[in-house]
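I'd like us to work through together how a protein chain folds, taking it slowly. We need material for that, and I hope you will provide a protein of your own picking. Go ahead whenever you are ready, and we will take it from there:
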Amino acid sequence: MSGIQGGTAAGTALGAADGTASGATTRAGTGSVAAAPVAGVRVAARERLVDVILAVLVGTLVGVTAAFDTDTTVADYALIAVASAVLALYRTAPRAVLAVATASGAAYVLHAHPGPSAALPVIAASHVAARVGHRAWAAVAGGVFLVAYLATGPTTRQIVEQAALLMGWFLCAVVTGLADRNWQAYLRQTEQRALEAERTREEVALRRAGEERLRIARELHDSLTHSISIVKLQAGVAVHLARKRGEEVPDALLAIQEASGEAMRELRATLDVLRTDEPTGTPALLVERARAAGLAVELTVAGEEQPLAATVDRAVYRIVQEALTNAARHAGPAKVGVRLAYGEGCVTVTVEDDGNADPSRPVTPGIGLRGMSERVTALGGTLLAAPRAEGGFRVRAELPVEAAA
């Protein structure tokens, strides 16, 4: 009984160690780009060390138990070593590890007729296989091992009872593996939400500042522009009538006319500044920011890069920005490709990911997609924003450079 509990604990420890290491990897990805490779190497080395220690622990438990059997041979110890040592490779090939551990464990029980502790490597392999989603393989492996165990003494009541006990521990290993998998998925989702909130905090602040600028511009336009226009118009009419009658125009009236005209020009300049929404970077800078936030993004530039008109350059920046934001929010742990293609008289912006967008479900355009469509339409271009047939989402905008200029 204690041996089986040790095996289940070892399997749970395998899942816990894997979850801790993966969390460390995610947190390392939020740091600087230069420090990420070093942190990744350290985490990988720690994972390998933990895997080796747990494999040695399982092998030691089974080997010590086998040492009390006087008829244990060198071949039996070799089978125990293979079934235990292969557990150190479960991160890279969980199904292969499960197959080797099950085959070695079954061969060991058929040859040596040991106690229930021989099931420890198979229980641990079943746990980690269920943890990564191979629960059917884990159930089959447990069934194969139990058949081999029953074959050592099918008529013995003790063997049947021990096999029933092992069946319960195999079921426990599969269930705990599935529970661990769901827990790790929840942790990854929580970390992703935290990263997304941190990444979009600045963008939300900039967007709110832009909305506030536009609101102020509207208020100024509606209140001051109308009033100053009336003052300027009345002063101009008064000056015109005075000159038409041959009267001397008062200096105060001329000052009012000149001051109102100057106020109108300054107010228009102020409104232009408030309404200006110039980008604060380039698409390459957006890609670097997305990478630093943990999003896997690749930038490709095709054709001969050429200077763009201010309106086109602003539209390209905003399209890439909005597409990357949507990918980070809705695509999940996906790879994103950004492509800028410079052609003759046009520039094509393509942002696509391999996320979880379903091509059979219609897209409901939000504020971001509508904003992109309005920008592209205003420049006389075309926009395609829809799920890909092979999965994921694609945003493709073609902008005519000459028409925009």
Remarks:
- The beta strands are 296-302, 335-342, 346-353, 382-387, 393-400.
- Residues 39 and 217 are 48 Å apart (CA to CA).
